[in-house]
Design goal:
The protein has one domain. The two termini are 15 Å apart. The model has no long low-confidence stretch (mean pLDDT 95). The chain is 0% helix and 24% strand.
Length: 55
């Protein structure tokens, strides 16, 4: 499958609908990053809120 990788957004989450299958990049023009913590102090505290599970 060919996709349009956005070289500004690296991504290794192959389970996401927007992951470029043949490269480790996102296909979206932009993403929303958020947190599930009230006081995030580590990268594990952040989330890609643009994630959609691949069908």
């Amino acid at each position: 499958m060919s996709c349009k990788a956005n070289s500004s957004i690296k991504c290794t989450v192959s389970q996401c609908e927007y992951h470029c299958d043949d490269q480790n990049y996102c296909t979206l023009d932009s993403i929303q990053v958020g947190t599930h913590e009230s006081n995030p102090t580590m990268c594990e505290c952040t989330d890609c809120e643009s994630f959609t599970k691949k069908r």
